Here is the input.
Amino acid sequence: MKLFACTSCGQTVYFDSIACKGCGALLGFIPDALAMVALSTEGGAAAGPERYLPCAHRSSGCNWLVNQRDGAHFCVSCRLNRTIPDLSAPGNVRLWQRLEGEKRRLIYSLLRLGLPFEEGPGGVAGLEFDFLSDSSPGGGGRVMTGHAGGLITLNIAEADPVARERNRFEMNEPYRTILGHFRHESGHYFWDRLVRGSGWLAPFRELFGDESADYAQALQMHYQSGPAPDWRECHVSAYASVHPWEDWAETWSHYLHMVDTLETAWVYGLTLEPRHAGGEVLATEPAADPYEFTDFQSLISQWMPLTVALNSLSRSMGHEAVYPFALATPVIEKLGSVHRVVRGAPPDG
Here is the structure.
């Protein structure tokens, strides 16, 4: 994630900053320009000829701004909500704020990559979000996180660290985060929007498999028998081995992990120069914004040493590996295919 500077005093501020700790100025993020600005005393901000106003959810923690000429009350992230939790229920405000904070990180990535997520011509569905609880009115009990026709549904219990960790343990998952859920489910959306019925479908099937295989049967088999013992040889996660759709969504999610984390490393000027014989194999110096890379090999060559350093730092603090993945060659090839789809390279390029 980028670092920003307060336009009032120059103090370093961050993606989720509401106010500058240096001068106290209220801050707002302009999605159009991917920039952070100090608000005027009237509560708005200007960027060139454009004028921006705070999102109507600012009192709930949203620091994004709305272009005044849009005539909208909500920012580009908040306006994607179809259903928000019952905020009168104890604890729901806190859970919802956590969900929204992570959703803004997803939308930031989509904006940086120039990916379409609003309604398109010919009835193309835009992204929408339902944030529900098991006790939501009209619900059928347990809310399952998933995607269907552009609508991403997330059980707000995933914003409770205790509940999420319990789910992670029960499902034997090495990694489970709110942002990971958003990235995974957005992968299903972009498969529908970018791959289905396009020139990318044949290359997709060569790498990921035939998506026409019975999905419900594949899912049932996975939960009854578990993943194949050799899933690590060609999948980024055990769940990716369920079905080609899940393989794509897990790989898509991992690609977003990579570019967003590498951007953070680049912005902080992180350089790896291991101090031991033969350490050059882990040496890397992010030389450019990874969101601007057209060459996938440059991304992966910087990513692998960074993950080794991240895991070593995490273990030094007494934690488990922050990056519990091992990328086999077929997985790297799949990540490269996601990169080509995102960058719009021709399917045979």
About this structure: DSSP finds eight helices and eleven strands in the chain.
